[in-house]
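Can anyone check this?
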Amino acid sequence: MKKLLFSIFLIILFFPISTKAAFANNLSGRILLDVERNGEAWYVYPEDLKRYYLGRPDDAFRVMRELGLGIVEKDFQRLAQAGMLIAGDTDLAKRLSGKIVIQTEKNGEAWYIYPRDLKKYYLGRPADAFRIMRELGLGITRKDLSKIHKPGAEESIDAYSKYEHKKIDVNGTLFTIDIVTIDMRNPNLKIISATADKQDCESACQARALDGYVLENNAFAGINGTYFESYSAAKLNYYFYPVYDTKEKILINEDQMKYWTTGPIFVWDVNNKFYYFKDSREFVGVKAFEEKNNVKIQAALGNKPRLIENGMNLLIEWDIDAKQRDAKLARNAIGIKDNLIYLVVAQSATVPDLANIMKTIGVDYSLNLDGGYSAALWYNDEYMVDPGRDVPNAIVFTQ
């Protein structure tokens, strides 16, 4: 196993990373081995460019056969077999590159057309198929694997969280949303608000992709955080809003708490209990909060505008600018309903649309997060909404 993983790492060093749009296409038909997860195997199906988990030998064999393409014996014989010097019909092999072909006229035997040499490899029994897949597998990191989508519009790790891609009817208008729901009653749940800078920063601040925050904390879910300055060179990546850095146990921008313009704040203590402050001045600061409630803070995030408070749409129209009011962009929100956290990305929506969406979902409290090019959503080792740019803070969830 050590030799296998070492070989995989060597492959990675020379593996060219393409643009996001062409990434899955470059890996079409390949078997991918997650070098950071004990070499777990995935198959990138050429027909939809999505990855299918191969699991144990019996699982892998089943997936391969389900995705297999029937081939008549005349065409099958035109394909070169592994270990033979003849080239075979390369045009046919290229059309079948990366696919599993099933001999429909010979007991349904399965073969894999390896994209690197365009030869067919006999999959045989489950154990044989699994061995072939691993021998021909390409090593890949979790970060790069996350760029290739899994099939299906729904996914769930366990009873405490799930992901859905769906349409929602809001007063007669349909919106497409991606939504991750997380149950705070999960006894193993940890909520982490994370910042790139570990101290207040007003210019040339740090930022990183959402996957950086996720992978650093081995999180299963995450969403980008506050608004920030993305265009001004003088104040690049600066953000006004308070964000608690869970690891460092410090509140970035704590000096902004005294202003009414700072807006509402979401807070969680170390027992995953949620607290809402409609005005940052009510929160005061970390020390005051912990002494008053006799708990330790775990995570906190502020942003404007507020969307939902006590189940009501309380978006203040004069508190948003023209772009927030009129531009149809990807819009992000975090919401709370009883013991549930909702991470939402709505496509082609304004901020008022987003408020109505969160009201339709039925949350009790909701904050707007940075959207547009910043929008990113992660669940179960996959970008459900692909990132457009690095962000200075995020909120992620681990267990």
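Reply from J.R.: I decoded it. Residues 2-145 form one domain.
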